[in-house]
Each structure stands twice: as C-alpha cells, then as structure tokens.
Amino acid sequence: MIIVLKPNATEEQAKEILSRIESAGLKPLYMPGVERIVLGALGDERVLQQLHLDAYPCVENVKPILTKYKMVSREVQAHDTVVRFGNAAVGGNKFAVIAGPCSVESEAQLMAVAEVVKQHGAVALRGGAYKPRTSPYDFQGMGVEGLKLLHKANQQLGLPTVSEVMEVGQVDTMCEYVDCLQIGARNMQNYALLKAVGESKKPVLLKRGLSATIEELLLAAEYIYDAGNPNIILCERGIRTYETATRNTLDLNAVAYLKQRTHLPVVVDPSHGTGVRELVIPLSRAAAAVGADGIIVESHLNPCEALSDGHQALTGPMFEQLMQELKPFVEAAGRTL
Amino acid sequence: MIIVLKPNATEEQAKEILSRIESAGLKPLYMPGVERIVLGALGDERVLQQLHLDAYPCVENVKPILTKYKMVSREVQAHDTVVRFGNAAVGGNKFAVIAGPCSVESEAQLMAVAEVVKQHGAVALRGGAYKPRTSPYDFQGMGVEGLKLLHKANQQLGLPTVSEVMEVGQVDTMCEYVDCLQIGARNMQNYALLKAVGESKKPVLLKRGLSATIEELLLAAEYIYDAGNPNIILCERGIRTYETATRNTLDLNAVAYLKQRTHLPVVVDPSHGTGVRELVIPLSRAAAAVGADGIIVESHLNPCEALSDGHQALTGPMFEQLMQELKPFVEAAGRTL
Amino acid sequence: MIIVLKPNATEEQAKEILSRIESAGLKPLYMPGVERIVLGALGDERVLQQLHLDAYPCVENVKPILTKYKMVSREVQAHDTVVRFGNAAVGGNKFAVIAGPCSVESEAQLMAVAEVVKQHGAVALRGGAYKPRTSPYDFQGMGVEGLKLLHKANQQLGLPTVSEVMEVGQVDTMCEYVDCLQIGARNMQNYALLKAVGESKKPVLLKRGLSATIEELLLAAEYIYDAGNPNIILCERGIRTYETATRNTLDLNAVAYLKQRTHLPVVVDPSHGTGVRELVIPLSRAAAAVGADGIIVESHLNPCEALSDGHQALTGPMFEQLMQELKPFVEAAGRTL
Amino acid sequence: MIIVLKPNATEEQAKEILSRIESAGLKPLYMPGVERIVLGALGDERVLQQLHLDAYPCVENVKPILTKYKMVSREVQAHDTVVRFGNAAVGGNKFAVIAGPCSVESEAQLMAVAEVVKQHGAVALRGGAYKPRTSPYDFQGMGVEGLKLLHKANQQLGLPTVSEVMEVGQVDTMCEYVDCLQIGARNMQNYALLKAVGESKKPVLLKRGLSATIEELLLAAEYIYDAGNPNIILCERGIRTYETATRNTLDLNAVAYLKQRTHLPVVVDPSHGTGVRELVIPLSRAAAAVGADGIIVESHLNPCEALSDGHQALTGPMFEQLMQELKPFVEAAGRTL
C-alpha cells in the first residue's frame, strides 16, 4: 500500500502514520520526495485496510497494490473451475448455452420453448419465477407456481434449470425446485443474499451489477466463496452507460479480463446486454470468440405475447439460427457446442 | 403511447397492432408518414405497457408519454409531504440536518458524537449497525448491539435515529430500535425489501442507487408508497460516473428536478456524494441553495480511528463549521436551520 | 415528431403550436389524452427541428420519429460501401487489418514494424505524425518528418498509410503524404475539420468520440458525406465508462448496430478499446465475430522504447499470433484475411 | 511514481527497470513484498512519464504520485487569479454573471437581450457566431457578421463579449471583434486550438469537455498556459452520464474541487449543465453557494423563435428573477453581485 501525503504534510505526521503501520505488524517505508512525502507499507493489505489511513487529514490518497479479492483469483487457483448442475457443465470444453423465457408464464409456454431450445442444443433452461421489475405495476412473476413448472420441465426433458432468487427468504424453496440460483444484476451487492446462497452450496449464476466494476463483481463472488460455496458462474450482462441506442453496453473487455484474473467460469447474457433482438446473434458470436464459457439467452415462441422483455427474446427459428451461427465460432475458439 | 414502425412495415401489420390497442379499451391512432408509419394509443399507459408492443418485429420503438410513477407525483398531490419521526420533520420549513458516524462502533464513540451534533443543531442521528461492504473482509457492523446503542442515544438525548436496513429479515428488529429506516443505494431496487419497509409504515429514507435514473428512484418510492407507506424521504447521494477525482458525482440537477416532480421531501448526502472531507461543506451549502429539504452527513470525533469511511467524516470542529456556514444559505433559501 | 404538452397546457396553446406546424408545410395532429395533450407533426423532421418547438413553455418534451442522419443510412443506400485506398479495401469480403506504431518515431522504427505487419498480412500501415496528447509535456509527434517517413514506407513496401489529422491547416499536407486521413476520437465533433476532410475527398477513418453516441458518430459522418466525401470508414475504439480496469469499454454492440443502420464500413480499434496488451487478441477475435469489416491495431517491435502507448502495443511475435488466431474467426464470419 | 510488477516478475526484471530509472537521473526504490515486487522512483514525474515503464511486460501498473499539471496548480501559485476583459473581472470579489443568447441571430435580437441582461447586472455578453452543431442540417451561426454585431453591442452598451472560437483559422478574426474567446466542450482537447488561443494572449473561457475528467480539464488549461496565456477561466458545464431526465449532469463537486486545486477562476454554465429552463435558477443558486466565481447563462427574449437551444434559455423576466434570487446566495458566499 502506498500512502501519498499532502504537500504541506510534516515529517512528524509521517512518523505517526509509519508507527501505526509498524504496530500493525507491517513493514513501513519512508520515501521523501521533492514535492511530496510518500509512505509505503509492505505486507497483507487486508490488514492495512483496517487501518483506514485515508482518514488522516495529512493523507492525500492511498493506493492499494493488491486486489481485495483472493479466493476467486487465479493466483490462488490457476486452473479453471468447472461448475456442474444436472448434466450441464459450465467452464469446460463445451460452450454452454442456457436458454428459455424471461418469465415463466404458463405450463404450455414453458414446455413448448423448453423443447425447442433443448432440441437445438441448449444445456440448461432459464426462466424467472420471481421477477424484479422497475415498476410496481409490472408483472411480478408466478412465484412458487413458476418454480414448480421449472421443476416439471427438468423432470420431463432432463434439462437442468436456472432461476433468479430475489431474497433470503426464498433461498430454501428455490433450492428445492431449481438447479442453479441466479443472482440478478440489481442484487449483486445484496450481501445478505450473497451470504445465503453461499451457505446453500447450490451452483450460483452471479450477474454483474448495472454499474458494478469488474473488481466489485469479483468481490461479490468472494462473498459467496467465503460463505462456503465455490460453485460460482460469473455473468457479464451489459453495463449502464450514456449510450441509449442499446439497452445496456455489453462489456466484452470484462470477459477477456475476467478469464485472465479468475478461475471461475464466465458466461455472457446478450439479451440484456443489448436489449435488441436483432443484436443477440452477432453478440453471441462475439462472446464465443472473446473466450466466454457460454451464453444465457432469452427465447420465447411468441414474443408478442410475452409478459416481459419480449422485445429482446429470440423466436424459435431465431434460436435455431443462433445455434447454427454459433457453431463455427465456438469451434474456432477450440470448443464444442 | 407512440409506436414507431420500421421503414418496411406494412399497413396490415399496423392494423394488427391497432386492433390490439382497441381491444385493450384504448383509443388507437393511425399516422402514416412519408418515411414511417406511426401509431398512437391514447388512454392509461399502465394498461398499454402490459401489451408489450415493443415485442412486435415490425415495431422500431415505443415512446411512452406518461411517467410510470403516479402516487409520488405532484400531479396526484400538489403540496409538499412532511415526514416526521420523533421530533424531527423533513420537508417543512426547517432545513433538516441528520448527522452521525458511518458505523456505530461503541457506546462511547456514538454518545460522544451524538452530543456534539445535537449541540450544534442536528435534528436526527445517523449510524449504521448493519453495513453493506464491498469486500467480505471489511467490518460488517455491530448488528443488533449497534441498534441498541442507537436506541439508547435517542433516549438519552432525544435525538431520533436513522439506520440502514439491509434485508427483509431485519425489518421488525429495526422498527423496534430506530425511528427511520434507511434503504441504501445498493438496495434501491431490492423490491422485496421495498415492499417490507412499505408494509412496516415506518418513515423510510430511500437512497438513490449508484446508477439509478431519477425515474427509477421515483418508481422505487412508488413501490414503498404502493405497499401502504407514504412516509418517504428521497436521498440524492451521488451517482457513478467516469470521474475518479471524487468518489461519486453529486447530482444536484436531480434535486431541483425532483422538487418539481414529486411531493416527497429530498435530502442530500454530501459525504458519500463527494467522498472527500474537504468537499462536504461547500456541497452542503449548494444543497441548501438548490432547494433540498436537508442533508445527511457523516461525522466522527476521531476519523483516523473510524472503522469505515473515515476519509469523508467531519470532525467535531468541522461539523460546527458546517452548521455555521450553512446558516446564511439556508436563510437565503427561505428556511431555518 | 411527437410533441407532449405539460399537464396544465391549454387548448389554445396547443392550437398555436399546431398552426406553426401547419405554416411550415407539415401535417399537424391533435391528440387530446386523459392526462396530457399530445401533438403530432408529419413530414420532413429536418424542417420541424428548425421550429424548435421544445422552446415553448407549455411543451414538456419533443420526441423525434426519424433519425437526423440520412445519407449514411441504409435507408438511402442498402448495399455496403467499400472504401479503397492504395490496394487496400475496407468493407468488402476481405477482413482488413491495419497495423503499425502509435507514433512514427524514426525511419528505422517505422520500416522495421511495417515490414513485420506486412509480412503477416496487414493491408495498411498506421502511424501518428501529429499526436493529440492529454499533457503538453508529452511527446507531440514528429510532424511533417513523420509524414514523409510514412510516404517512404508506402513506396518501399506498397502498404498504403493511415495517419491522424488534427487541424484544418494540416489537411493539404496530409493529403500529399498519406492515403487515408484519420479523425481521432477527440476531434469527432471538430466540425471545421470534418468539413475540411469532406472537401478533400480523401478516404477518412472516423473514430468515435470518447463519449459520443452512435447517432452522434453517424452525424459526424454525415458532415463529411455532406461536404462531398462518401469514402468514410467508421471506427469503434471504446467509450468512456466508470470501469477503470480497462482504459476504455469497447462497445461491440455499436458495431452490430452500425452494420444494420449504415452502409459505411466499420472497423474496431482493440488497442485503444482495451488499453491492455493482453486483451488485444481476444477482442480482435470478437470484432471479427460481431461483423466488423476490419481492425486497426497498434504494434511496436520494442514497446518498452515506444514514445507513446507502449503498454497497449503488440510486439512482432504477438502480431503474428494475432493474425493466426484471427484466421478461423474471420473465416467463420464468411470472410478472408 | 510507483511501479507494481506482475506476480511472476523476477528480481532480474526489476533490476532492469531500476537501472532505467537511475539512468534517467531519478532515485530508484526496491520494495519486495510477499505477493508482489513494488518499485518506486523519486523525482520529477514528468521525466518519468517519458520512460513509459507501463510498456514493460512484467509491469502490472504504474501509479503516478504527482499530478501532470503544474502551472495552473495552487502549489505553484497560491493566490487566486483574476481574469479581466473590458470592465469585467472574473475571480475576484464580485460574482460575475455572463449572459446572452445561444446564437447571435440578428442585430435586433442581440441588442434587445443585451440591454436587458445589462440592466439587471450582467457583466459580460455571451453569444455564438460560429456554432458547433451535432447535425450538419442545423443552423451553423452567422459567422463574421455575428462577430461584428457582438462588437457593436459592446461599443453601444459597454458590455464586453464572450464568443466561441471553433478553429485555429478563426482566432485572429475573433480577437479583433470579441473580448474573451470561448473554447467549447467539444474542442477542449483540440490541442492545435488550445495552442493558438494560448499564443493569442486573449482571455479564454475554457469549457470542460463532455466527458473530460477534472485532471484533463486542468491539463487543457495547462496547454494554454504553457503557450504563454495565463488568462484562463475554467467552466463547468455538465458532464455526460447515463441520466436522461436532464441534458447533462452538472458536476458541482468539480467546482469545489477545482477551487482547492487551481488558482484559476471557475464559472458554471447552468443552461447547458441542465438543459432545462426551469432548472437554471436553482442550479445558479447552487453554483454561487458551492464557491463558483460566476455563471454563464443563456437568455433570449423570445425563446420560441430562437434558432438554437431555446428550450434552456431564460426569458427577460426569468433573467430578472435569476438575479434577484441569486443575490442572497452570492452575499452568503461573501461576495457581491
């Protein structure tokens, strides 16, 4: 950790901080410059952060050297983690396509789309039973009835399921009915929920928050890991920027960056990442090319009747086209579909 | 609602949508232009949103005319709402200063700072017992022991308290010990929590999410209102932008805009809004000038020992200076301190 | 164009605006709703924008129906434009790789890297002679001497050149020595410069501004087109967001979106788009997969000695690796390298 | 400067960098940590930046200690700079109000509004003769005829003028007719233009770029200063964020921050900063409260007829109201109006 003092800071003030660093069991460094005094502290930065040296009035700023996340880092585990649920595996040689409707709306709707996506190669079924909606007047999901339908779909088709959990009180019920718990973008920093899914040990698909940094995403994963659950799939789903032509800005830089820094698998959500049906296929191709371990994509056999996000859902024929177009890119990336 | 069709859309496709609008009990409008067909739908847009017309492949985009929020709007209630808890009132003639430490750390720490802020004119005491922290390795708060200390501080000093609630399971306990429930920025779209505090009827201080639009903030308030609780204080606390010199970008445009659109009181958090101790006083002055109903500010008698956010906390003398500097600006705004 | 009036607007005010629309030769529409009066104006929106209806106090907002750009749109020209300079073509079946150093630094440096990139398949050479630098104390480029070296490189290797023009006064000299004029991100809305390169008729590589919307990029291209020059290559080079792990956020959504809306070719700059050498190859692969017409990439045989942007430059062996890795993705996209 | 090496960096690699630091005449520091080797370099960082140490493959990142700007910093000059043009002074005890139309449209329009703003206390007249417009089809300004009208207004009313210069070729003509040259947001990093206005020695009003950091704004000012012109007024005019309710997000944090770091005067543009007429007055009050040295505001006697930006222009009566409302806040800030 590097501590830069203000221009008018005195040697005495520097010494006070240095002795505080030393008393915490770390090695202090004194670097008097021409325009500034700079201090260093060598050792475990997680201890140093407890010192809150940035609170000293004579401190201009504190520059950490190490990242705050640890267990999810490649420095702790060099090889890739593969997360398995049902007969799906994310993070291995197979590029995993998870597909299904935004919301579970009825048995007929769910079964029909589940069959189509399975037929064309999806390895898991997505579908929301509890829906986080910006407005209280929007459709809020079928709740536990939706979960039961997902369970039924899995039993009939052998397609493991992913569904969003919105609060601590839902975790147990969710674990009963679905195979992988999704933490939505709005809940990425809902720490009580992170701890709860961490304790559940169920595989977790953790979506990046709307304006979360890559480091914050990794720290959210670290919460789950720290609570005892290493089965974490990270999901890039677009970030909020000034651009309004697309719903979000899909950050594929983040995918390549994450693959270098963490051993956890990374999937991409091109449906929310673009918010535009016509852009889903090209961005899915790009996801495969950049090195993602899979995609999670919205599909609805009749988008005009969808109760949510119909504008970004792929129809059945479009889903088939997606899988055909993906194939050569997945193979170019050295994987199978 | 205005529906713009794609350039190649046919009259037939337009008619299908028009008949759907009509069957929903709304008045359809057909506007064939030179380059595009444009459709209109007059009536309650909240019904229209259920139609999901943007999911039609022939639709380029849908432009809503009305806002989605309703009960929190000045169109429904023209006069200002005043939210009262203990002997504090936010939204009236008095500019409300809520102050206290980021975290409750000990009885001695809390009582000492509470006395100082009360002496200089604070009307309520803030302090976190449950702390949302980016890293699992950071101090997570004293929990219920912290709540008890807040309660004690109120009993001894007559200073009502504001503290953050982080999950549904905490709401009942929080209601027992504190006077106003804070929803933090990370939880602004934690809808289960919004509903729970809505049902509790306790006054709520709702912070704007890190990258929430003004409309999303009002819709989050609408969730609480819709659940039966009109006692809502909105809080602008800075948004996330590309600028790194300050922790966040305090959006005072939003305060002026909100005061025109909603009857709910609006306070400003210059501590998180800037993240820099030296900027807290000038931005507090600006908050008073722009028309805010108060501020919520972090203060700690010994910031260098603070367990969180010491770098942005005002010392005792700085808090006194804040109140002195605020006075003429509050009066210029036609209020009292 | 749709004009939404404020809640308290009167019928009289509406009539005033309607008559203004009519007198401009457009067809006015009156749509009285339950909560708002909405007006429409059918016809050429470019005329309507001259009316500045949003300036009326009774107007809440104005929603344009049509885009402001026209000549660069696929609605005017459905087929792809191919931009040619020297023996390079951008926009056709061949995926164009433009490569070279950030800055021209010396004859030896330029020739060495030019030979390497040509050998491995680059179709054009990039290199800055005039450098826009954030600080006045940074290296500002070799100027006209740099241009002469680019010219020499082209003569010796048959590799056409791309270089940045920073001001109107440089256009003539640039045209003499280089084959394609680059407009940098900081100058995307330097309208005098856009007009000047438009009048020059030279091929132009137009970079998206640091925080320019897609529509603003297309309007900047429209300036060049409108000045008489249809030879425009658009370049996505990353936008500024809150994320700091990468220098910029490469917006591949924009590439897919642009390919649908404009007939102009689109290339990607993964060097500036990431700012991290290790991310250049994966994002180049993604650019090919998303449908870009090529990439423009920085390469330097000895990045540690580079006078600018060495941290994002590919070494010779890395450039070779880039071309090898690109090949299957380019082919999967139905193109050749 | 602090240089953090990658986890797998060797001592040998560290030594190579240390010797490079030493050979540049600086003092190297070697700090081997548990997880990383960290290097330091003490001395003039502007020399260090020429070393481009971030280009070394073994370097993870480089953290500068000192800011890159120097001459505009309070560390070089502690006292406030006052910029004078005509009988206007910006940066002193008087809060400077600069007002006028977005565009000069005609003699009648300009004279009428100039008289009104002068009568109510404006110290300078703004008005655009060359207009940077997003679309080539929008009104581009009256050009030199507009400049002549500004000159005439100054002669008749004794009101010095501010007008935007858009390219190097206009600088001489502008200097002939107007008293203060405005660099617009889109040109903040048009370095050729910065150097040209620097050489002209005329007072410059430098607007912050749409997504420029505070440091980039100060470096743009440093360009002008470095070219020999210390007469620089900085202008905060709103930054681009994800929020769409307002045209830009006015960053008053930046104003308070700038006043602490630079001796240059800082004014606020609440017209572009909000883009909404109704928000101009509250944000002007906030600008005075936060410590700005003045405001630059758009006013038009008949906004509905304005050729540009009518939606954010104050009418005559609103301008009068602005001045009345400003007064107590300016006085609370210890200044006069």
From TrEMBL, chains A, B, C, D:
One of its GO terms (molecular function) is aldehyde-lyase activity. Residues 91-327 form the DAHP synthetase I/KDSA domain. Residues 1-66 form the DAHP synthase ferredoxin-like domain. The keyword Transferase applies. Keywords: Transferase. One of its GO terms (biological process) is aromatic amino acid family biosynthetic process. NCBIfam families: DAHP_synth_Bsub, PRK08673.1, PRK12595.1. This is 3-deoxy-7-phosphoheptulonate synthase. It comes from Photobacterium proteolyticum.
